[in-house]
């Protein structure tokens, strides 16, 4: 066994964000004859890829004089949970408060975590974006009312810029620039667009493929230019019904749609056969990478994102009752 020596000291929570490992996914690679590599974003200190966006958004606000460290400003955001966790932890480290608005349908684990770390959590019924009661609009109104800073992750370009500056260049450095394709799901589009921009800057031939769950309208947007959706998914934090500012102009070549059964197959497979404990969006990303690998043929290098960890979804993806209720298969060791 070789142990990599740590060579530097991180400056607190914020200094520990990013520089995540790029992990070879053995079974996906062996099954396709490609190198399928997962960027281990679940290893960020707040547990997800959204730590990067949270930091980029807060640093941008500070640079523009909208927040001042230590002056107990308030950050307000609507989120499926992970951005709220990242924002609250950065806020704690910088001396701000946070108000987090979240649809009540999201996992209990993320709600409990947010309360544990001191967020002022406001749960709202899940409503479509066109409804004024949608969590994004509620968060904007709360920010206006309390004079807080609205992070606006969907349309704040600091989000994708953070990934263009960090996640993308890290992937290039870790692969020596040898990347044939990149697959990524989309919530705000920050990760997909930011990494896509960085990879295409380096090599315009890199194929960028959106990994979409059922029920999202982006697959049809990429394939036909039309925004339409059908079906639904138990995945959280991904799937989108509109083209966010972060997605606009992103260099996306193609899209694949991944059903929940295929997503769960990857989540369980990675856990039981490789010891990698990841959430549903990571399962969708890996399933998409395998599909792209099969389409491109052996010998290619495909990178994807392992967005967060399985423990955030224990009560859903690993709960036989929940799975049966959704008509989904229960893995044998839980059955
Ligand atoms: N996976 C998970 C688990 C998430 O919480 C999110 C963010 N909502 C994403 C993927 C998508 O990331 P992005 O917002 O950068 O598109």
Would you summarize the structure shown here?
The protein has 335 residues and is of the alpha/beta class.
Number of distinct beta strands:
10
Which architecture name of the largest domain does CATH use? 3-Layer(aba) Sandwich
Associated small molecules: 4'-deoxy-4'-aminopyridoxal-5'-phosphate
Strand order of the largest sheet: 1-2-10-7-8-9
Main beta-sheet strand count, sense and barrel state: 6 strands, mixed
Structural class, by secondary structure, is: alpha/beta
Shape: globular
Low-confidence stretches: none
Quickly count the helices: 14
**CATH structural fold name of the largest domain:** Rossmann fold
Using the CA coordinates, give the radius of gyration.
Answer: 19 Å
Helix-strand pattern: HEHEHEHEHEHEHHEHEHEHHEHH
Name the average pLDDT. 97
Pathway: Amino-acid biosynthesis
InterPro entries: Cys_Synth/Cystath_Beta-Synth, P-phosphate_BS, TrpB-like_PALP, TrpB-like_PALP_sf
Cofactor: pyridoxal 5'-phosphate
Keywords: Amino-acid biosynthesis, Pyridoxal phosphate, Transferase, Transit peptide
